Structures are given as C-alpha cells and as structure tokens.
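QA checklist item 7 of 12: single-chain prediction sanity check.
[x] sequence parsed
[x] length recorded as 263
[x] structure emitted
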Amino acid sequence: MSTVVITGGAQGQGLSHALAFARLGYNVVIGDLFPPEHTLMQAAVQAIGQAGGKCLAVQCDVTRGDQVEALFAQAAEQFETIDVAISNAGIMTFGATWELPEEQVWKTIDINLMGTWRVDKEAAKYMLKQGSGRIINISSTAGLKGTPNLGHYTMSKFGVIGLTKTLAKELSKHGITVNVICPTMVKTPMTDRPEFVDYLNKMNGTSFKTFAEADEALSKKRAMGVAFIEPEDVTRMIVWAATSPEARLITGATLTIDAGSML
C-alpha cells in the first residue's frame, strides 16, 4: 500500500489532499502544528479513516528540522515506504515592502520556503533509497508575478519554484519527480478571515465586510467568473501529478490553477 506525507494536513487544502488520497486507499501521514490529541487533528484523523485511509497524525513545525525529520521517520517506521510528499504548510501576512519588519519577513520565508526545503530534503532521502517517489510543492500565482502588499510572501513562493526545478534536476535520474502547483486564491481558513478581507479592500479600493461578499463581487470580474477556487480544485491536480501514469515523465513543471486570473 502506498503512503503520502502531507504537511499542514489537518485543515484547509492539506486536509482536502489527505481525504483524496485516503479515498484512493493510501496510508496518510499528516503533519501539523497541533499535537495529535488536538481537536483539529482528531477530526482530521477521523475523517481520513472514514474516507478509507489509515492515518498517522504527527505534530510537526516545519521551521524545526528535527520535527520534519521525525515526521518522515515515523511515517517510514509505520508504513515502510514514502511514495508521495506534499509540502503544503504555509502562512500569509500582509504589508507594504518598505513597512515589513524583518521578523515578519523571516518568519514567512522560514515557513513557506525553508519549510518546503526541509520537507523536500527528508522526502528525497527516503525516496532515493526506494528509487521512486513523487514530491509536490505548493507555491502560488504570487510566485509568478509581483503582488503588492505581499512582498515577503511573493519572495517565498518564487523561491519554492526555484527549489522545485533544482531538486527535479538533481533527482531526475533516480525515478523521482518533483513538481510545483501554483494556485490562485483558494477558499480556506487562510483567506476566510478579516485580515484577508482588509487586504482585498486595500488592493481593490473596496469596502467588503465579509469574505463571502468579496468572493461574490470579485468573481464577477474574473475571466472564468471565479475569484476563489475550491481546495478540491488544487487536490485534483495534485492527485494527478502524484499518482497518474500520464505524469510519470513530468518533472520540474510549474502547474498553474488560476481560473484565468493570470490572463
């Protein structure tokens, strides 16, 4: 039976991915900031089990190399192989480039970029021993263009793409593929919060009071009539890149899901 390791797997996009792999019969290992007994982790484990997958929940802060190492060690000990690794954990905060405190910038980079490197590093070690595996990193459309008031986030997400392409070259002769997904804005707890609505208002000169109001209004202006995609939209591409025979020769690719926002 195949095994997938997902960071940030207890909620949002990560949980969506975990449930999809569970339905395919995968062993699912979720790493998140919370201890296994936390209500979010317990709910995730229960949902993954109901979807048909065996689940291991491990507390993992991706800024801690020792915790990322322990995540993969526990996954390998319990399930033997690590067939897919999804570096999904990330944060988003806001501020004009000239106003950002260094601490805020470094925290974003440490989680979004260095965290991805730590996950990729451990995944590569196990997959090299196996001679197979698929690594999926999560960037953003903000990793493809300049995005005001998100300079530090954009820096981190551009970096994830560079890391992906480099690792793909390094592992290309070892039966391991490495690809990066770049979604546009996704409906998750990261976007459905007052700070994000404030960011949208600053960007668009609007006065939205709720996320739902912003979603409805902004969708009318988008090429495909969608401003915020669903987590499952990202999941479907990840599952294809991670499991499909048609994706076996695709590596180092930047796969964009943008509902036409980049047009």
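[x] summary fact logged: The chain has eight helices and seven strands.
[ ] second reviewer sign-off
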